[in-house]
Write a structure and sequence with these properties.
This protein is of the alpha+beta class. Helices cover 47% and strands 13% of the residues. The longest helix has 75 residues, at 392-466.
Length: 552
């Protein structure tokens, strides 16, 4: 297939749904998150081979990426990072283009890819050559920043993008392996730099999912994704797995992977390694960012500042919207759990409470990463803004505007964190309440057991007395009737004393005085026998026809 306008080969959008749900977000390997680490994807327990590190046979064309640009990346390191393995199954890559012009206007259509803003690149040699030509051609001068949203990245497109824009392989490895990262590299004062943000975030999916097997397209083995609550819970809590609220709604860990080149030709590349199922596709994010150009507020920002970094800041707002919707869903779920704890007194609910609490702790770290990413953007000014084409006043105004907008986003992230903290505190209260209910039930059981002793203890005591070898007691005149009378009397006395000493029980309330407690048998007879008989007699008297006629 040649490069051209995309028709029927686009990945399925979020709105239309898909049959594939990614299995589990892999545990991130943080040590390989940024180029500041001197041993990227190396096995430190195995010595390096000199002949493997020379890369003498690497072609200088795009086919030689990453070794053609980054000589320290050996074949073994590339293999360990799974940079190409995870995109080797893709046969067609889809790129959605969008330009922001110097006047701040967003262009849905670009000068590449024909008459539309979508380009499809197959693995044929002709399609690869055509796409490389598109990347290499000179841009119009009225374009401030060009954005590429990539779905179903193929190995050839990865090599071409990396070669064209001198992208550190860490961007692709962090994105493919879901490693949170943020870094600046290739800094040239007064000319430009490269910045990368890989940001996991939480997003909801509110369609009802049927409990059936759904294999992921990127997993070699099938994965059974079941959300029925009838299955026994697993022993381990997988905080990376999709989370079901048991009412057909789901929460997923999603990923924003953005690399920005800030120089004479500003470029943003948004890579979507898991664009199937309920992860954010390039098509969906591309359509949302186009709507940013229709916002009056953001249009003023692009008119007042030449800094293309504001477009990257707008992309980060997408993660905040998804976080906000996710916490709304969690709020409803926590409220339902609290209701069940209060009304059902079900100790088994503590499992759900603990699972959700473990996830909220994980979400805390994700929100912290979100905050750090925004601060990184705020504290990493664009070196290209120091060029001679930008005045000092424009630079100061742009920096102040960037700080203001970053603070706006940071205040919203702080609101999300406080809401997450509130949910975590409510879960702790619910767990404390559940255990308090269990302790109260245990106390009631022990109290019932103590009531049994009121029956057996006096009987045993009397039996022990009757068996004593004392002439005054065991003189042969005691009968079973004597034992019964003594036992019943002592039992009644014991019950009387216990009820009197208790401040609150089934006989009298907590406000009862000592005199009322002493007279509790009288009160009990009045309340349970005399008063009911009196009320029954009054009702019968008032309802009698003879009495009613006589009164008339």
């Amino acid at each position: 297939m040649n490069v051209g306008t995309k028709n029927s080969h686009a990945p399925q959008d979020i709105a239309s749904g898909s049959a594939a749900v990614p299995r589990v977000v892999p545990d991130p390997i943080y040590r390989h998150a940024a180029p500041s680490g001197p041993w990227p994807w190396m096995n430190l327990n195995v010595g390096s081979h000199t002949n493997d590190r020379t890369n003498s046979n690497v072609p200088e064309s795009w086919q030689g990426y990453p070794q053609n640009k980054f000589r320290n990346w050996t074949t073994d390191q590339v293999k360990r990072s799974k940079m190409f393995k995870k995109c080797s199954t893709n046969q067609v890559a889809t790129i959605y283009w969008m330009d922001v012009h110097e006047d701040g206007k967003f262009a849905a259509k670009s000068d590449v890819g024909g008459n539309d803003d979508t380009t499809v690149v197959s693995e044929s040699t002709q399609a690869q050559d055509q796409f490389w030509t598109l990347l290499s051609q000179k841009r119009p001068k009225n374009i401030r920043v060009r954005s590429l949203f990539v779905d179903d990245l193929t190995e050839s497109v990865l090599r071409m993008l990396g070669t064209k824009y001198d992208i550190e392989p860490f961007f692709f490895t962090s994105s493919i392996n879901w490693i949170p990262s943020r870094y600046q590299e290739a800094l040239r004062q007064g000319k430009g730099d490269h910045i990368t943000i890989t940001l996991p975030f939480l997003r909801p999916e509110q369609k009802s999912l049927s409990p059936r097997t759904r294999p992921s397209p990127t997993d070699p083995e099938p994965w059974h994704f079941v959300i029925t609550s009838d299955l026994p819970p697993a022993n381990a809590i997988d905080i990376q797995a999709p989370f079901s609220t048991r009412d057909g709604r789901m929460l997923f860990i999603d990923l924003l992977a953005v690399h920005m080149v800030r120089d004479e030709e500003n470029t943003i590349i948004s890579y979507h390694p898991e664009s199937t199922g309920d992860r954010t596709s390039a098509k969906h994010l591309h359509s949302l960012i186009q709507l940013v150009g229709e916002s009056v507020y953001w249009q003023k920002i692009f008119n007042n500042s030449k800094d293309p970094t504001f477009l990257l800041l707008a992309i980060l707002w997408y993660a905040l919207y998804e976080w906000d919707e996710s916490l709304d869903l969690l709020y409803s779920y926590v409220s339902e759990l609290e209701r069940q704890v209060l009304h059902l007194d079900n100790i088994s609910l503590t499992h759900d409470l603990h699972v959700l609490e473990a996830r909220l702790l994980h979400y805390q770290s994700l929100l912290h990463g979100f905050e750090v990413s925004v601060k990184f953007l705020e504290t990493t000014p664009n070196p290209a803004m120091e060029s001679h084409g930008v005045t000092d006043e424009e630079r100061r105004d742009s920096d102040a505007l960037m700080k203001k907008e970053c603070n706006n986003l940071l205040s919203e992230i702080d609101r999300l964190e406080r809401r997450r903290t509130m949910l975590s505190s409510r879960l702790k209260n619910a767990m404390d309440l559940a255990f308090a209910i269990v302790n109260a039930e245990d106390s009631r059981r022990m109290q019932r057991f103590s009531y049994l002793t009121l029956v057996f203890l006096p009987a045993g005591f009397i039996a022990a007395i009757f068996t004593m070898n004392i002439k005054e007691i065991n003189n042969g005149t005691q009968t079973l009737g004597h034992y019964v009378v003594a036992t019943v009397s002592l039992t009644l006395l014991t019950i009387y004393v216990v009820v009197v000493l208790q401040r609150q029980n089934w006989v009298h309330r907590r406000q009862a005085t000592f005199l009322q407690r002493v007279l509790w048998p009288i009160h009990l007879i009045l309340r349970k026998i005399i008063f009911p008989l009196h009320e029954m007699w009054v009702r019968q008297y008032r309802g009698s026809p003879t009495d009613a006629s006589g009164l008339a």
